[in-house]
Amino acid sequence: MKKLTELCLYEAREGLLNKDFTSKELVLDHIDKMESSRSLNAFITETPEIAIKSAEKSDLKLIKEENGELEGIPIGVKDMFCTKGVLTTASSKMLSNFIPPYESTVTGNLWSEGAVLLGKLNNDEFAMGSSNETSFYGPVINPWKGSNDKIDLVPGGSSGGSSASVAANIGLGALGTDTGGSIRQPASFTGTVGLKPTYGRCSRWGIIAFASSLDQAGPITRNVRDNSILLKSMCSHDTKDTTSSSKEIPNFENAVGRSIKGLKVGIPSEFFLKGMSNEIMEIWDKGKDWLKNSGAEIIDISLPNTKYALPCYYIIAPAEASSNLARYDGVRFGHSVKSSDINEMYKATRSEGFGDEVKRRIMIGTYVLSSGYYDAYYLKAQKVRSLITEDYSKVFKDVDVILTPSTPSSAFGLNEKSDDPISMYLNDIFTVPVNLAGLPAISVPAAHDSNGLPLGLQLIGRPFEEETIYSFAKIIEDCANFKNIENQWWLK
């Protein structure tokens, strides 16, 4: 039999139901893996005591057949989700001492289904970044190594700890958040499956806010089926979140393996970027062939306003961040620098509490919202956002999904782009439009590049049609037959 840490989520679920092993045994093996993998810096806070107690309770429920959908399954949680009684930092000095007195709706849903918390995962500070290098707790290291194994690679961001932990077999899944690609881009960089659900599918209540009209929780897993299982338990209608959808939540797992015969796949001409590598083009072509051979029809489409998505995003997201992060003033909670002058206290607290990337985005956001610039930048960006959304609405009258690359490259080296914000922002060029339009999208590992690193393909769907996405994603997964990491070099 496989080692317990080598099992995927649905295999572990089956093993627990069959009494092949206990939840406590499963959890203890994952705790050992977590502790021996600290060189990856994937976890900010490890919670072994909580995990063991939860596993013991799960074992009793399994014996009595009173188990939930995820009973006894160990997972990691991005440190943007508030967890009652457990340190929650957003990977920032500003919240380095914050222990929430409440639970986020999404994590609460998972615990009610029996999931077990292994710990809180590292991410870019306040989810702002594409490489997981902006964290106050230091960068996460990608478990993958290229042909030149002397170079440490980034795991993508902002959900880098989530993607790295899943790729390294620490936990059977992980929670991430996606504001402009922060689930799909790290999934592509680490050879994992990452889904950004439709905006409103998962409650945002209890998630530390970056950009409220763009943020969405989602699962990162080892395969498509696992992803569908985890998403089902994450979702719920939530009266505490006014953007939460009341649509019926389907059993997403039933869509995995469903035929795609007769369905239509759109290929947007605007995603053929000048200078894009031949390897990305080749895997995109393979993806088209896989879907065509499975009975789908490939159609060329146009999304003319996509070219404006990145500048549009980097006006709207910082503007919302500027507003959301105004609450961190040193008065009510979090990091505080005491001073007899309140203005000096605000200034010193925010100067010390925020890192460079967060400060950069606050400054941009404050600028575009300021008098004289609101109409010229923010209002115009919102109009462009409407045009981008309209483009997708028109296209989805003719196609069922859209196929694109997930990222313009494979994982890059640590510190390679940290001094070049524009180059870093370009990593989200294929993912950002989806957030602006509020659509669901998934990244599926599809190939290795010439350096042996993962490359992902992205599938974009209509609002609340995650089931369709999962049916297509399973075809790509089966055809790609992607091989995971073999050399676990990071272990003690």
Describe this structure in words.
With 492 residues, the protein is of the alpha/beta class. It has one domain: Amidase signature (AS) enzymes (Alpha-Beta Complex). It has helices spanning 9-17, 23-36, 48-64, 105-112, 160-167, 184-190, 224-234, 278-293, 309-324, 342-353, 356-369, 374-395, 421-425, 432-437, 466-480, and strands at 43-46, 74-78, 116-121, 174-178, 193-196, 216-221, 264-268, 297-301, 401-405, 441-448, 454-461. It has an eleven-stranded mixed beta sheet, sandwiched between helices. Strand 10 and strand 11 (454-461) form a beta hairpin. Helix 2 packs antiparallel against helix 3, helix 5 (160-167) runs parallel beside helix 6 and helix 9 packs across helix 12 (374-395). The chain is globular and about 65 Å long.
Helix content: 25-40%
CATH classification class: Alpha Beta
CATH architecture: Alpha-Beta Complex
Whole-number mean pLDDT: 96
SSE order: HHEHEHEHEHEEHEHEHHHHEHHEEH
Largest sheet strand order: 1-3-2-4-6-5-10-11-9-7-8
Q: What fold name goes in the CATH topology slot?
A: Amidase signature (AS) enzymes
Radius of gyration: 21 Å
User: Ends: how far apart?
Assistant: 24 Å
How many domains? The number is 1
Strand content: 5-15%
Number of helices: 15
SS-derived structural category: alpha/beta
Write down how many β-strands occur, each being a DSSP E stretch of 2 or more residues. 11
The CATH superfamily is identified as Amidase signature (AS) domain
Largest sheet: 11 strands, mixed
